[in-house]
Structures are given as C-alpha cells and as structure tokens.
Specification:
It holds the Pfam family CMD. By secondary structure, the protein is an all-alpha fold. It is 72% helix and 0% strand.
Length: 219
Amino acid sequence: MTEPEPLTSRQQAIVPIAAFAAEGNLAKLDTALEQGLDAGLTINDTKEILVQVYAYAGFPRSLNALGTLMSVVETRKARGVTDEIGKLPSHPLPKGDALLSTGTANQTQLAGGVVQGPLFDFAPAIDEFLKTHLFGDIFSRDNLSWHDREIATLAMLAVLPGAEPQLQAHIAIAMNLGLTPEQLTSVITGLKQLVNQASAERAQTALNQHLEHQPYNQE
C-alpha cells in the first residue's frame, strides 16, 4: 500500500485564489495571487482558474478577479519579478456539435457515468450549457489539469452558501479523478486557515457525506 501524495504547495495555493475570487474579496485575492505566483503557479495557470470562476460565481467576479491578477502581475514586474507565462491550450477548442459531443464526453468521464435526471429533462437548456460551456469550453482547455480545476472548483463552491449540492457533486468528481480523502482534507485545511471557517465546514460536511455513502478503499 502506497501513501497518497500530498498536494503540492502550488496546488495548495489554488485554494485561496479560487475561494477569494468566487467570494469577490479582491483585497485578500491580491495577497493570495502574490503567494500563488511565488508558489509556482504560472500566469496562465492563474488566468485559467479565474476564467473558470465565471461558471460558478458569474462573469462579474471572474472579470474583477482577472483585473486584480493583471494588476498584481504588473506590480511584480515593476519590482523586477519575472513570472513564468505558462502554457496555452495545446489544441483548438471544438465548435458546434463537436463542442457538445466533447463536453458530454468530458462530463461523463469526470462524473464516472452519464449525467442525467428530471431537472435536465425539465430545463434542457441548462443541460446543454453545462455540457458546452463548462465541460466543453473550460474543461477542454488542457493547460490546467483536471485535478487542479477540481481543487479550484471545490474552493469556489465552498465559499458560496446554498451551493452545497454542487459541492457534494464535485467532491464525488474529485475522488473519481483520483484525489484522495487526505488530499481533499488538505483543501479543507486551506479553507479553514486561509479563507474562513464556514467554507471549511461546508466542504468537510460534503466530504463526510460522500465517504459515508461511498467509503474509500486505498489499494
């Protein structure tokens, strides 16, 4: 039996960045961005996290967060700090029917099965938007790993009261991708120490509920 790998300092830095961006706390985001760039996040890594915020907290907070990042990068450059730009997506994003097909495949792989239900039958537009915009447009951008995207997603959802069902769903996705309870506990610890107690409690409750119904067996 091998011990699970701990989150890297770079991955741990994703937690407060994603949380403060989704919360709209730009003063604390400024500090978190500085620390994240120092911890090894590239500029493009960080852009990807902040663009993804729009899917969970809306365009206004995503745009404000990106503006904060731009300011941080410019300030660091003026101080003589040269931050790594980082990678762009390795291939063009699909369009039209191909985007829907790719997004559906990504969603199915992330969730570990086909996602369907009465809500999507009742409002098929939201089903299509999830598949095309979130799992197609965003999760097809391969310059940020799905592990990193899920760490960011959990932090975003944890700071949004009322998003507990979605937080529960993404705990399941994270574990389906191979993130361990120990690694998710590190995310929760980051929320508790760097963000706020309430967000940590929401994430801990979601993890506990998931493990209660689907106990984790490390082989």
